[in-house]
Every structure is written in structure tokens, then in C-alpha cells.
Amino acid sequence: MLLRCVAFLALFAWAMPGAALTPASTTEGTAVKADTPKTTSAGTQFVVPSEWTMHASGNKVILEPPESGSRAVLVDVQAPDADAAIAQAWKAYAPAKSWPLEVATDSAPRDNWDQVRVYSYETSANDKRFVTAIAFRHDKQFTVLIYDMAIAVGEKRGSQLRAISDRLLPKGYKRESFAGRKAHPLDAERIETLKTFVDNARKAYDVPGVALGLIDHGKVVFSGGLGVREIGRPEPIDSDTLFMIASNTKALTTLMLARLVDQKKFDWDTPVVQVMPSFKLGDAETTRQVLIRHLICACTGMPRQDMEWVLNSRNASPETVMKSLAGMQPTSKFGQLFQYSNLMAAAAGYMGAHVLYPDMELGAAYDLAMQKQVFDPLDMRQTTFDYDRALLGNHATPHGLDVDGHTAVAGMGINDSIRPARPAGAAWSAVSDMLRYVQMELAEGLLPDGSRYVSKEALLERRKPNVALGTTATYGMGLIVDNTWGVPVVHHGGDLAGFHSDMIWLPQQGVGAVILTNADAGASIRGPFQRRLLEVLFDGKPLAQGDIDAGVKRLKAEVAVERKRLTVPADAATASQLAANYRNPAVGSIQVSHDGKATIFNFGAWHSEMASRKNDDGSLSFVTISPGSDGFEFVVSGTPDNRKLVLRDGQHEYVYDEVK
């Protein structure tokens, strides 16, 4: 669960090999019925996403989603450098409004591009928009990709934005593939290569600790730790150190459901209302369509509504989480787009638990179901939903960045807030336990003694595609299957405040890995680690280290430019004009207090110091800056007699009213 700004695009993440390409010649523009490969005037390969309209003229291609006012633009130019190419592309695009440049950073070159430079532009919260340009250079030819999108459209159609970048490749280039290659064994030398890569990346990103595990041909070949549990303390990470695994809990939840399918409690195609009549979404037709398999498929059209549990968790319970589903409305058609919903995932776990223990409170029923159906049979002795137990033992401390970009201990408040929705991401686990789980996945449901734990059919159903992620990855039930590099890679990440993890396995090679980190910057290690694993196995081109090097530079640049926009402590004159209390029925209350020069927003379950920021459009924002809970932006609104604050996520707006 990514709690704050959701990355709208994963550059170079996937490809779509083998499709025929047609030039984007001059066209009036008609919506395509399926993802359609095209080429620009210079021969650069790209994809027009399903239901998008293409307008091509000369060296310019404009791609528009069904929603008006958003577009992706491709412009071919020849220029002496990336800055000049970007300037030419904006001139060719000629939008109605221009935006000031916020920061420009280089990404690691790949896919036969000689240079990739990313330009982020400064928008204000009230613009509800993101604007980004990327200059891709091959030899002397640039292709510039501009995203000029409403945030709501960008989040809803994020998987389609990835489809555009998936296939943005130079003329005639075919991406590297490991299909048909034999994987090297993870011998001592290769294990050391992977450990060194992770440890160097950890140090580069200033992540205090990482737990790492590796499996080869179904056997654990490494399980241990790098670094320490907490910054400034000597206790090392080891294979039994507990981390919050966040959204990796989802796959464990669907594993519990697979066991219930085997036990004939229901099947994957049973309507949810048949086994839990109280299940209700805000849209009656969607409610009727939801089968068991759809609860963690990210395919029902239900958008993220994370703010409602992150900020309003003080009095939340599993029962209130289930009731809140009745207020959720889909923003895309059933099965049309990948839209990630933690609340729907929570419903999956509680539904299964209710079937097993109909007379128990939902949270207790779920905890017992997971213990009996998953943790005990897999010998996952460390894994727990008991926060008190976890925090009393060998556990990692979460870390974030302070307002100046330095690693610091993060509070646990946001991590506590997931408890009422815990099937979506509240498990604590250790790399030793997660390796046992991955071993079972690689063995297709068998335990180490050869006994059958879950049927192969029920287990593998969780990997079947429910919705596309870009062009070569799909989402199943709490699991992603990625065929970018020609071999299937099954994985899923997990994100909470100060805890970021990934579990990975290659079914055809019998190889698996688990990486757990205890700092927000650790999220940037996971993708390069997956790539490095493939490089080591298949003698792939050495791209992963470049991703780390460029990522560190980009993070530092982004922190520095954002810091310049913030006033810390918050401006005293503007802070004094805030009301003492605000409330919104969906996201709860804010109590405003002052501690010396600091302004504090207290949300009940957690609190943060605030910075103030004057925006380009003349508005004023207060932004959370405490490590681990940074980045929530509240825009001052209303009048002196009726003060308000406005909070937005990708597709929702929450107005807090003054409480008098």
C-alpha cells in the first residue's frame, strides 16, 4: 500500500514483444479498441492504449484518454541536448498553459537509448494536475514524451500510462529477453554478488537495515540481514527480525481463500453476497458482479480510498471497514482498468474468516483463520498480526526522511491505522518465514516433507490474469505476473511508513527471493534488485546499478527542490489563522496545536509537524513533514468566518469544516 503520492508511471518497466507496428501517419483521431502498437515519424515504437484516441501530424503524436483535458504527447526532434529537445517539444505541443520547471534529473539509459532525462513541472494542489516530460535520445535523435494529465485521470489510467512507456523503444530495437536461457545456479559467488549489490544500494540510500533471502531450485541458499534494526543502535538485522510486510499480506490472504476453495466452502466464482449477504458496495450492479476471485483483483473499478482509513482509524474496526464499502463508487468499468483497492482486499480476508467462524468478531476470526490455515501449516512461527508481540521482540524500526532529507526514525501511527483493514497489509513477518511461503509457491502447493498443503489448481488460480498492468504484466489475486524479460516473474511489493518489501519467484527456474527494508528509501531498491537477480541468473546486461545511481541522485534533487518551497517551522502568521479543530465525516478530525514555533496537526491515531507553503496559484498549503508521515497536503480554503481545509487523493476531495 503506497500511502502518499502514487507514482503514475514506471519508466521502462515492461515491453510488448512480437506485435506488428504501423506508422502514426496524419490522422483525425479515432479511439482504438485494443492496445495498438505504432511508430512515430522517426520510427520510435510506442503503444496507443485501448479506448484512447490518437491524433498524429508530422513529428507530433497526441494521445487522449476518454476523459477530456488530459493527454500524452510524443514529439520527434533533433537537438544539441536534452534541454533544447524539451524546449522544441513544448513549442510543438503548444498547450494552453505552461508550467514552471521544478526539477530535471537523468535516469539510467537502457533499451538502446543513449540518454533519458526527466523533467518535472511545478503544479499547485488546486490545479489537480501533474505535468512531466521525458527526453529520450538515440544517437542524435530525440523523442520527447510529455504527460499533461489531470491527477484523477492519471491515477485511474496509470496502468495505461505504463502501456505507453512500456514500448517506447528506438526504431527497430527489440528488448533483451531471457526466454530459453538456462539460469545459472545461485552459487557462493553469485550469492555474494547479490548481497554486495543490496548492501551497497542500502548504504547509497541510507537505509539502516535490510533482510534478504534467496532460494535456488526450491532450497534456501541464503537468509540473513544487512545493517541494523534502528539507526544509531548496534542491534543487527538477522533472518528472524520482524518487519511489517504491508501489501504482501494480500497474497497470504488469498492463500487462505485457496485453502477454503479446497475445503469446498466456496469456489472462486461464487458471488460474494452468497456467502456474506451483508457485503455491499456503493454501486448495486458492481456488488452483484463481485465473485470471490474479484475481491483482490484490482479489477472491479473501485479506486483507492486510503485516506479514509489512514486518517480516520482511531475508532475504526473491521466492521466499520466493511460498512464503509457501501460508500464506494467505481470510477471505471468492471474488468477495464487496474485500480488498487486496499478496502476491497480487507473485505476478502474478512469474508473468508466469516465463512470459517461466522459467530466471531471479524478481526478475531481473520486472525484465527490465518493462523490455522496459513501460518501454522507453513511453519511461519514469527509471522503475526499482534503488534504488541512484534514490538516486544526482535523487530526492525521504521525510518523515513526528515524535511531536510536525512534518515530518521518514523512514527508507527500510520502503520497502526491499517489494523482495522489488516487483510490488506498488517502482517509482521521475517525473511525466514517469508522464504517458507515462497518455497511452497515454487513447489506448487507442496510442503518440504512432500505432503500436499493446497491444491495446485487453487494455488495457481491466484496467478491468472484479472487485469493488465501495462503490456506484459498482469494482476491476479494479490500477485503480479511479469513477463517483461521473456520469463515469468511472480512478485508483489508492500509499502507502509518506513517498511518496504518485495517477494519474488521465477517458477520455471525454481528461484525465489525476499527483500525487507526498514526505511522509505528502501522502496527504490526493490526494482533494481529484481533486475540484478535476473542479470546474475541469465548474464543480463548490467542495468541495475545504473538505476540505483540515478535513483539516489533523483531523490536528493527532489528533496532539495521541495525543501526550498517549504517554510519550516510553518509561518507563524498564517498558522495563527488556522482554526483549532476541523472535521470531515469521511476522514475524521484534525486538532491544530502549537508547540513552541511548531504547528502540529493531530489526526487522532497519529500526528505530524506541519510546514507551510505558498503555491504558485496564490493558495496556501500546510504539509505534513514528520518522518514516515510526510507529504499529506492540506490547502487553506473558506473564509475567516468559515475556515476550511481541503485534502485530496488521486480521485477524491475531502473538505474539512471548522468545528466551532
Can you tell me about this structure?
The two termini are 35 Å apart. The longest helix is centred in the last third of the chain and has 22 residues, at 544-565. The chain is built from 18 helices and 30 strands. It is globular. Strand 2 (36-39) and strand 3 (45-48) form a beta hairpin. Helix 10 packs across helix 11. By secondary structure, the protein is of the alpha+beta class. Strands 12-11-22-21-20-19-18-17 form an 8-stranded antiparallel β-sheet, sandwiched between helices. Mean pLDDT is 93; it is low at 1-19.
Strand pairing plus helix content: what structural class?
alpha+beta
Shape: globular
Cα(first) to Cα(last) distance is: 35 Å
As a percent range, the share of strand residues is 25-35%
Give the tally of β-strands. 30
Name the poorly predicted regions: 1-19
Q: How does the major sheet shape up? A: 8 strands, antiparallel
Strands of the widest sheet, in order across it, are 12-11-22-21-20-19-18-17
What is the number of helical segments per DSSP (H or I, 4+ residues)? 18
The mean pLDDT is 93
Helix content: 25-40%
Structural Rg: 24 Å
